[in-house]
């Protein structure tokens, strides 16, 4: 069976239909339907099969995108899944949450020609969801036992990806995580309307069924020191991510009702799991009936504003110091938020927080901003616009300015662990090893707050480096014996 490609000239771009904004704002289900098979085939057939596929070049995983698009267009879905799965441990998750408009689709050649990019993310999601339904997703089969064990600190995408590859190589793999469920931000940071939790849990259960041991509610530094784990395992991987919220320095920041984005999102996701969440039930981390102001312009801020809408907030505003064109979050997420009733206050920054007599926040004092000269990253730096103060009513303020690294040397009781001036773990660029022999690091704790797809890529890369080091260690130990 074959299907002609290059249909982009006569066939327009078509994403899976989204549920109406008022309907989807009432629940935490994903907002878009999935392609029917014929739609997925037609949209895949729009691919121009470039000689130099910029979509693959700009994908951190370098997925074989044109190849599995062609297979999908030809109705060869199982082969398409197998090729997609060959370079990614979580293709259906990336299909849902990757900012394709900044990566693969944003660099699609037919997008440049004005015909609209191939809908790569939606096809990727369709392929792997179909694979799960049809039973094509095979169990994780451990490699021949090597007699060596690896400890992974952190059960987010970098740690889980590395654990999967290392288990497939035959290592005993133990994953340690402070939370009661694995998945990191996939589980507790990203809302269900972007990533429904059964999609994450089935991946984790597959790893557990493959013999990976999960130690949940386990804190390195409390339940074991770094030295304890080094004695227990032949190699360690630090893949904790970055969780320290960036601060706002402004009068009134300590007012009741000014909360951290991750605390807010975690509470909401826990309620979705059916957990008891006292801070949600008493209103501390619940936006119902409140005038909510979210400060920030990244994907976490978009998650917060859209969660507040679903909690039936009285109003939801997002303050961001740059304009729409210069915000770091996905433009698709901004559009979704606007459809659902979020108001964006561009070129604005908080200058202070007013509180009522009982100490609860009542309003945000803001300052209008303007864009000046480009900063070190090339983006135009915001600067205050004189005499432009304003006030926004707020019963709840959510700080979503991004995340920095925690003080791991202190937390882990490992002062000899080398870190950069930003607090991220310092590694050798070639070996991905830290300053401690046999201790590696990958993901956001090395590169800083970044994308899930980069964490998956780092997990894949570090597993190869650890494998090479562990093989050399085994040879050395045999010679010494």
TrEMBL record:
User: What segment(s) does the record annotate as region Disordered?
Assistant: 370-389
Q: Does the keyword Chaperone apply?
A: no
The residues covered by the Dihydroprymidine dehydrogenase domain are: 25-135
Q: Does the keyword Metal-binding apply?
A: yes
- What's its EC? 1.4.1.13, 1.4.1.14
| Species whose genome carries this gene | Sphingomonas japonica
Name by which UniProt lists this protein: Glutamate synthase (NADPH/NADH) small chain
Residue stretches making up the FAD/NAD(P)-binding domain = 150-459
Q: Which Gene3D superfamilies match?
A: Alpha-helical ferredoxin, FAD/NAD(P)-binding domain, NAD(P)-binding Rossmann-like Domain
Superkingdom to which the source organism belongs: Bacteria
Keywords in alphabetical order, please: 4Fe-4S, Iron, Iron-sulfur, Metal-binding, Oxidoreductase
